[in-house]
Amino acid sequence: MAPGKSLKCAWRAFARQASAFRDNQSGATAIEYGLIVSLIFLAIVGSIRAYTNSTSGMYSTIEDTLDTAGQ
Asked: Which residues of the chain have a pLDDT value below 70?
């Protein structure tokens, strides 16, 4: 086999693999799902923080009321 012919064959194989890689969408889909999951996680964490801040204030008020009533 001539050196030029093997280079041409290797170039075609590389072009086929590059085309297959370009057409493969599974990695992009996984990244998109990862971004969606991370946004949902951040929304849940924000909701929990808001809830704990509001209940913390409520329990502080109850504690102060009970301390005042017990004196």
From this structure: 1-5
